[in-house]
Design brief:
By secondary structure, the chain is an alpha+beta fold. The protein is built from six helices and eleven strands. It has a single domain, classed as Clam (outer membrane lipoprotein receptor (LolB), chain A). β7 and β8 form a beta hairpin. It starts with a helix and ends with a strand.
């Protein structure tokens, strides 16, 4: 694969990872508030959710730029292994994850990447799959996972275990309140960072 396409794929993996936690919101709200709050509680809630739609705003801050770059669009998920991120502004772009195939559609062109051939990207993408399916064992295989706070105000912290992934991503932090995901941040090792805010969609 061309180096430009590979870099784009890695960026897509990061953006898909940002999207992974949005589907927790409705199920976390259903959790028994009297039950113990831990990773198992969170993952059990995630495992119940089979599909979802949301709108997003993603803001990326880069050291080389004077101002952040903002994009917005829609997200769609269907268990066990389908995830679509459709950017509408400022430039249309669609990222689709289906099984081990990552597809990027941009400017009338489509680029595909088989995750089996790129284990460093697969680590990031598999974390999406593990989280959406509530598979804590798989998530802990690829990340050091920490949960702080309580159901009213919590933070999920993910640190990559794989050295190649850790060269690019320092940590992913997901914050929520009262069973709703409010923000998802990706902190890169080069100092750049991104923040996604999410709003669940209930319209048809």
């Amino acid at each position: 694969m061309h180096r430009t396409h590979l870099t784009s794929a890695r960026t897509c993996g990061r953006r898909l990872l940002l999207a992974m936690a949005l589907f927790a919101a409705p199920w976390l709200a259903m959790a028994d508030q009297g039950a113990e709050w831990n990773l198992s509680t969170l993952m059990q809630a995630l495992a119940q959710h089979q599909s979802g739609r949301a709108s997003f705003v993603d803001t990326k801050t880069m050291a080389m730029l004077d101002a952040p770059i903002a994009s917005s669009g829609e997200l769609r998920f269907a268990a066990p292994d389908f995830l679509e991120m459709r950017t509408l502004k400022p430039k249309p772009q669609t990222i689709i994850l289906l099984a081990n195939q990552l597809t990027v559609e941009l400017g009338g062109r489509s680029h595909q990447l088989n995750l089996d051939d790129h284990p460093d990207i697969a680590v990031l993408v598999n974390s999406i799959r593990a989280t959406l399916n509530g598979d804590l064992n798989l998530l802990q295989r690829d990340y050091l996972v920490g949960l702080s706070g309580d159901a009213a105000r919590w933070t999920l912290n993910l640190v990559p275990v794989d050295p190649r992934a850790r060269q690019r991503v320092r940590a992913i932090r997901i914050e929520g309140r009262q069973g709703q995901v409010r923000s998802i941040a990706v902190l890169q090792t080069d100092g750049d960072h991104s923040l996604m805010t999410i709003r669940e969609r209930t319209d048809p």
